[in-house]
Amino acid sequence: MDAESLLLSLELASGSGQGLSPDRRASLLTSLTLVKRDYRYNRVLFWGRILGVVADYYIAQGLSENQLAPRKTLYSLNCVEWSLLPPATEEMAAQTAVVKGRFMGDPSHEYEHTELQRVNEGDKAFEEEVVVQIKEETRLVSVIDQIDKAVAIIPRGALFKTPFGPIHINRTFEGLPLSEAKKLSSYFHFREPVELRNKTLLEKASLDPSLDFMDSLEHDIPKGSWSVQMERGNALVVLRSLLWPGLTFYHTPNTKSYGYVYVGTGEKNIDLPFML
Amino acid sequence: MEDTTSLEQEKENKEQEEAEKPWERKIPSSSQDSEPASSDPWEVEQGREIGPPPKNSPPRSPQSKDSTYLDDLRTPASPSHSSPRELSFIPSVLALAKQNLAIPSPSDRTTNEIPEAGKLHPDLLEQPSDKKEPTQHHSSQPEGNTCQLPQQPKPLLQRMRNVSHNDKPKGQRFDVFQEEDSNSNYGLDQTEPGASEAAPSMLETAIRNAKAYLLKTSSRSGFNVYDHLSNVLTKILDERPEDAVDIIENISQDVKMEHFNKKLDTLQNENEMLPTYEIAEKQKVLFLHGHLEGADQELEEEIVENSLPNIMESAFYFEQAGIGLGTDETYRIFLAFKQLTDTHPIQRCRFWGKILGVEMNYIVAEVELREGEDEEEVEEEDMAEERDNGESETDEDEEDELPKSFYKAPPVIPKEESRTGANKYVYFVCNEPGRPWVKLPSVTPAQIVVARKIKKFFTGRLDAPIISYPPFPGNESNYLRAQIARISAGTHVSPLGFYQFNEEEGEEEEEPEGGRDSFEENPDFEGIQVTDLVESLSNWVHHVQHILPQGRCNWFNPVQKNEEEEEEDEGKEEEKGEESDFIEQEVGPPLLTPISEDTEIQTIPPWTTRLSSNLIPQYAIAVLRSNLWPGAYAFSNGKKFENFYIGWGHKYSVDNYTPPVPPPVHLEYSSGPEITEMDDPSVEQEQAFKAAQEAAALASEENEETEEDEDEEDDYD
């Protein structure tokens, strides 16, 4: 959610129950404006909160002019002091795939994972147990990255692509109309498109290249991994992800307010196919 | 070419007639000087840029037309004296444009013209131009050369434009027009030279022609350029967005779409708004309910005060912990509770929490009904036991006939009585405040046992079937009730000492059913320091009975019942004795055990404690968060406490959910010689057998006959 409209956004996303306490809210309002100034970001988003056993991580993201450029992620334990996290890489993802369980809440905590590695010495090949240490910070980075790639969403029309390449916020975006707000096809993943090229020519012909340049939620696997609900009568549409429980996206139809926030334990719900 | 020069001369004559400012006169003179020299390169330039040679007029004529269009559009606002200025201005702009185009020509020409241009500019460049917008209509100029002069005329042009125009948008309009019209006016080339030759009447004809062209409606959409442009400009002027030139295409698109959407708007709005209005109506009823009471208000108030919980107060404390549904949503839930207490006879109730579902959510109220108000338990599950008895009786008769199945279904464990154990409270749910409250059925142990083995999302509809393995005995309302029971048993905690056991006599008697199960509030509770509550988990205790693996809170021994039945069936004692060896009594932690005794989840403690605020610790409250049931919270400020649940309704497990494996196939009837298949004997075997038989018979006969006759033995060979 945008740091500028933090209070309203928190109120709209409160249907999921997990929000922020007043002192966190107050500290966020001040510290995020300072972050925006210090790091010179075009926009600062409050990404959410990852609940750890000992402490919680508060995550914010900074965006530059080009809205789809890789975002810078910052974390804080007390909503006042923010530290920049390194960008996510493939190796991190592979490394942290073996770590299971809750986040501790201490960024320097190390998870131990014993692996059997084959060590070839001359003719013999035997397996050794190697204990690999994985830092919680690495895990945090890759989990945030996974969540962003999987479930960060944006309504159709909120961003538009200029012929020169950079992607801007569409200032003429007036919000989704009610009839469109309940369809999954009106929401896009807020990331570089992956499936767009695989569409057939017929489908591509009906797309507007300045607006439809991202993947829509329609073809997400597994089907049914999004829960679309209207709250407060039809005045608010809330999408909750069932794959990463804790991610809530809200949008008031016919207005410009939208955003997403993640408050959860940072674990993927792998049991989803059993639960549907 | 001749035409152009004559044309230009005509224009310059006009200028000289109307020019007011000295510099404007200067420019025509200089351009006149440079014309003969520059017309050629200019044409060449034009040729390079635009293509066919006779296109040297387009940059000029549209400008003249532009001015008149501007006049048309601005007629309500603009004073008339600005128009001649426009007319004079534009040819001068035009002349400068020519000069611009001329300047990047081959160097021998430029040496001629540059000093002339240079003469002009120092006068005009006294005020530094601070607006250096890229001139869109000049962007087609070749700007590859490093000559600085082309840049000087540009700011000059802009300033000239700005001098005569009052505000920026008009300048941009000018640009817009030029872009659009330069593309559309190629067809009118032929008329243009003729139009500007004569007096302004020909100009007017040209203007009218061009206007007629712009008013031509498109065959596809019914629009025309003229109206569309005037709509776009009106919109821009009304809304005055920033950086309008950047979003001009979007605005144009929006104007087009608006035109189409108008007719459908009313219909769409009605359809879409109906559900909103419905909910609003329902919620309005909530707000009005209080006023409709009348005379009985006082009486009911007393009761209502007792049973209605102070949800807003608890919500305030939970908000300190960061949990909550938002203030107005909570207030609506508060009103829905009031409605609940008004319509049902409720002793006590509590806002248990909210369970999220895929299509709709559930708001759950934990309710204690008044005495004697809840007898609708009709179903008896003893039918299964009677069936078992029937089978066992018939078995005796048919023992020799068919192989019988040894399978006996495990006896159904009866559910607990209301107000005890897992059914201590009654739960009401609704999807949204304003919707009617629905009572959930009591929970049976079988449902709890199966609910432990499955993991399903709630859809939000109480009658939805639960399709799972093992099959869940019931639909979503039962599953919901079972999960609520499990969550309550696992996560409802209170500070140590808040509740105490009732003072009863003979406490340590046998009582195999799990010990004491009734408690009451401790009137002497003095509160615990918040810091103590946060530091040590032993200051919190469970006040809901633990549910045994059997599915009940109080142990039910299925063996006992069977022993009673044995008296009826005599031949069954042995078998039954073998099966029910000795079912151990399942024991769970007794009531009011501190939560420090809870088992850990691998390495993680089952509860996380926090102070609600680190900045102001003296007024902070202790917040407890369950790691086993994510979404279960409890707070206490030392004296008061409350439990709450908000989440999907599932238990946390580090490992993936693995569905239980189907049980092994039941043993078949044990094989014995009577029913084992045997191969039929082969022919040799049969013959051998027969021979053996005959030999045996022979032997026996021989034995017999040896006693009588020994002469007839030979016959048998």
From TrEMBL, chain A:
The UniProt entry's GO biological process terms, in alphabetical order, are: axonemal central apparatus assembly; cilium movement involved in cell motility; motile cilium assembly; radial spoke assembly
One CC-aspect GO term: sperm flagellum
Its keywords, alphabetically, are: Cell projection, Cilium, Cilium biogenesis/degradation, Cytoplasm, Cytoskeleton, Flagellum
The signal sequence is none
Q: Chief location of this protein?
A: other
Q: Is Acyltransferase included in the keywords of this UniProt record?
A: no
Q: Which InterPro entries match?
A: RSP9
What subcellular compartments does it reside in? Cell projection, Kinocilium; Cytoplasm, Cytoskeleton, Flagellum axoneme
Keyword Cytoplasm assigned to the entry: answer is yes
In the record, the note on similarity to other proteins reads: Belongs to the flagellar radial spoke RSP9 family.
PANTHER family tied to this protein: MITOCHONDRIAL RIBOSOMAL PROTEIN S18, RADIAL SPOKE HEAD PROTEIN 9 HOMOLOG
Q: What is this protein called?
A: Radial spoke head protein 9 homolog
Q: Which organism is it from?
A: Oryctolagus cuniculus
State the encoding gene: RSPH9
